[in-house]
Design a protein that fits this description.
Length: about 100
């Protein structure tokens, strides 16, 4: 049940780690889903959250949406929606604020 903590550590390390965790999640999604099929939905929510940490671009938001459209899981649909919305909000914030520092 604690298998997802390393995913969180990798994803929170830096942007390279975030992308690595997301790639791992996508490649192992069926296995992870199967492993958690009889567990609390909060565990799959945690894995999804840890695998998508630090994203802040419209491109990533679209990729997340597309992945879960092709691989729907009812138990995480709300969490995915929140993550996509947050990713888009961060992208807009970055577009607004970053030019001030360049």
């Amino acid at each position: 049940q604690d298998f997802f903590y390393p995913i969180g550590s990798v994803s929170q390390s830096n942007l390279v780690g975030s992308n690595l965790a997301w790639e791992y999640f996508q490649e192992n999604f069926e296995r992870i889903s199967e492993m958690l099929s009889s567990a609390s939905p909060s565990l799959l929510n945690a894995v999804v959250r840890y695998s998508t940490t630090n994203f802040a671009s419209e491109e990533k938001a679209n990729a997340l949406e597309q992945f879960f459209k092709e691989n729907p899981r009812e138990q995480v649909s709300r969490k995915v929606g929140q993550i996509v919305e947050n990713t888009r909000s961060l992208a807009k914030f970055k577009e607004r604020v970053l030019p001030e520092f360049l």
